[in-house]
Structure prediction request, 500 residues.
Amino acid sequence: MAPKKKKKSGKKGKLAKMTEEERILYMEQKALAEEEMRKKKEDMLNQFLKDKLVKEEKNTRFNMYKITHQWRNIMRASKSKELKRDIEILSQTFERIVDRKDSVIKSLAKDLNEAEEQYSMALRSHLQSMDALIGLQRNRLSILKSEYGEELEILKKEFDSERGMISNQHKQEMNDLQDILFAMEENANEREGEARQEFQSLRDEIKNKNLEEKHALRIQLEGQVEDLWKQFQQALKNYNETTEERKAAFETLKSKDEKSAKEIEMQMRKLQRISDTIAQLKAKMSQNAKESEERNRDLREQREVIAEHFHDLKSQMNKFRENERGRLTKLTLHASVSIKELSRKVELGERILKLSEQCRKLETEEEKVLPFYASSLTDEEQEDVSAAVAEPPSEPLAEIMHQYTSLENFWKRYNKVLLDKVALDKEKMTLLEENQRLRTVLKQYLDGISVNDEILSQGNPLFVVNQHTNVQLSVPVMDPRIQRPTQTVVEAAHIVKYTI
Prediction:
């Protein structure tokens, strides 16, 4: 503890010996040294933390890589098991499907031999119909392609013209902006030259004024000093006469006074120079502030005008881009819809061909020999129909129907099949109704030949009075399908009981 006290007492003595300025300088140096040490410690701590963070990030990346690698191995193992199980299932399914396909191929090979004879007959009519359909579709596609090309050329021409107009307008506006900037720079240079000239003239005026004031003040001070010197000499003479003892002290005081006067004069000159400099700097600062404020205000207004013009141009360009993007989107959507529609029609045609091949197998011998039924129209009606077909169509729907006259044989066969289907459906409904009636009659009959509480509590055909029953039969008794024989039957047990 003693050395520390000595050190502190030594520092206090050292500070006591220093002047106020040295003490302040010493304290500032001490504070700077402490601040520098603190900054060094903070830098070392930050560097340590950064190194630690980099190391932790490396470890984290390495651990994440290991975890990801292990997880991938686990996922691969589980996925391989699933894939193996799926492969086994698929292999069994494939074998089953192959067997089924083999049987189907055998049956198809058998049907193929039978269809060879039918194919030669139907091929000619089918090829003619397909050629007509292909010709119609090609004409339609060529028309659509030509329309698409014309619209594309129109869009290209409009885009090129609008693009050229916008580029020319942009070039013209850029030239105008360059002219404006050049004029602004020229005006700024002229204003700067005028401001410098005004500043130099104001500086010269202030300098001359200060020199004149200084010269007048010096003359005034010299006169006052001379008066004071005379008074001092008179007082000194009186003082020397009155006292001789303080002469030495007076000489020393005089020398000190001269030194103080010189120092005061030097300080006054320094203050004068500083005040002059401050006044000049204030004037210059106010002048520069005004000029900069005016220049900034002009530049701000010009920037606002240019920004507004730029925003207008940008909004116009964005609108143009949005319009073009919308048109391009519509064109793309129409093209995709057309492609989808054509593919759908191709699939529909393939499906129709497959269905026709399947339907060919179900045709009767008569249909194979005579695929198109004879018309039921008279000769006059046939002539009227041919005359109506020969007339040019007046409505769009009639024109479209006129283009598909080559499908008349197809519609004949389709209508014939449709009529057969309707007849079969009607016959099916009739048979279902008859079956339902027969089931009802059968149920009533079974209820009539059985005796129990449930049957007797309901309507029962056993209760017959005067050849009438309390059951409402859904089928008349006179129907030959359920009519019973009219002969009377007597049981043998009844004869034995009541006659013997």
Summary: The longest strand covers residues 464-465. The mean pLDDT is 78. The radius of gyration is 62 Å.
